[in-house]
Write a structure and sequence with these properties.
Layout: E1 2-5, H1 11-23, E2 27-32, E3 37-42, H2 50-54, E4 59-63, E5 83-85, E6 88-90, E7 96-100, H3 107-120, E8 124-126, H4 144-157, E9 161-164, H5 171-177, E10 180-183, H6 191-197, E11 204-207, H7 214-226, E12 232-236, H8 254-261, E13 266-268, H9 270-274, H10 277-289, E14 294-298, H11 316-332
Helix pairs in contact: 3-4, 3-11, 6-7, 10-11
Bound molecules: phosphoenolpyruvate (PEP) and manganese (II) ion.
Residues 102, 272, 298, 308-309 line the site of manganese (II) ion (MN).
């Protein structure tokens, strides 16, 4: 349920409500808005206590939350969530571009790609150190060494880094090096992992599973929020369908639907979305036109020799062209780059 405080409610009144929520064994999620404070309450059977909270001083009204995703949805919070990663502000008017290789392969590879994407205007660096691969015999990433190389690339470029965490047991190690932790599509419903990520204070980049509904994605975000971490970015990266001309079927409608339902920033990954480097430009333009808050794009200095996802990776030169091409589309929908 949501407890809407009166506009002039004192901090003592708000504290008293929060203490009562805790005493009853529920979890409180206060949202201090510009005009008033709203306190979300999580727990089973909160509906039974609606009237109880209406009697507290400073409370204007108490409402049940109808959607199953209580805090990821717009019922509790209408304003957009803005997430800061280093000096990058995500979810506002400025489009956020995350770029980098699918996998970190070596020091020279990640350094040269990081410098190139920075030069072209990327806001953040991506690179996988722990790689989820369909075959156990494929390259599975440099693991801790990959994390160290990403941190070195951040030092060299100033770009904050995002990298995937595949397992709840690795959260601590990835947390130490990354500025934002990525949950891969295949792990979107790894609930143990989601719960661990709910306990940290760094943003989580949550990718939609290849066969997950939009509600499944929002419920996955809810798992993280329920443990206390509200810094979540949602990402559409294509669905598994009957189509074979593309690696996945990019669901552009997910972008406005997610934005209608949720206040969390929405990203698109046109690289996994289409699976071909030449599809990255049109899919990126479609995503930005549809209102995406940002893009995650795979870039490799030599896609032919890439240890993963070469066919969908842009060369640094094509990434530069993409950024240029996006400027007019971004401007048309009121976004800066
Ligand atoms: C990736 O970002 O390299 C990746 C593995 O993506 P996804 O989880 O969307 O397949
Ligand atoms: Mn990849």
């Amino acid at each position: 349920m949501i407890i809407v405080m009166q506009q002039n409610a004192s901090s003592e009144c708000i504290d008293a409500v929060i203490q009562e929520i805790d005493r009853m064994g529920f979890k409180s999620h206060p949202i201090f808005g510009v005009e008033r404070t709203v306190v979300g309450v999580i727990g089973d059977k909160t509906r039974d206590t609606l009237e109880h909270f209406e009697q507290f001083e400073g409370v204007e009204r108490v409402l049940p939350i109808l959607q199953p995703y209580k805090f990821a949805g717009r019922e509790v919070q209408q304003e957009e969530t803005i997430i800061e990663v280093g000096n990058v502000r995500i979810g506002g008017a400025r489009l956020c571009i995350i770029a980098g290789p699918c996998s970190v392969e070596s020091e020279s590879q990640i350094m040269s790609i990081a410098l190139a994407v920075k030069e072209s205007g990327a806001d953040m660096l991506r690179g996988g150190a722990f790689k989820p691969r369909t075959s156990p015999y494929s390259f599975k990433g440099l693991r801790e060494e990959g994390l160290r190389l990403l941190a070195a690339a951040r030092e060299a470029t100033g770009l904050p880094v995002v990298t995937e965490v595949m397992d709840a047991r690795h959260v601590e190690a990835v947390y130490e090096y990354a500025d934002m932790l990525q949950v891969g599509a295949r792990n979107m419903q790894n609930f143990t992992l989601l719960e661990e990520l709910g306990k940290i204070d760094k943003p989580v980049f949550l990718k939609r599973g290849p066969s997950a509904t939009i509600e499944d994605l929002l419920m996955a975000a809810e798992y993280i929020i329920a443990e206390g971490n509200r810094k979540i970015l949602l990402c559409e990266r294509g669905l598994r369908t009957f189509e074979t001309a593309t690696r996945n079927t990019f669901d552009v409608s997910a972008i406005p639907v997610l934005q209608r339902l949720s206040h969390l920033p929405v990203f698109a990954d046109p690289s996994h979305g289409g699976g071909h480097w030449w599809l990255v430009d049109p899919l990126s333009r479609a995503a930005v036109a549809a209102g995406a808050d940002g893009l995650m794009v795979e870039v490799h200095d030599n896609p032919k020799t890439a240890l993963s996802d070469g066919p969908q990776s842009l060369t640094p030169k094509n990434f530069t062209k993409l950024v240029e091409n996006l400027k007019s589309v971004a401007a048309a929908v009121g976004r800066s780059m």
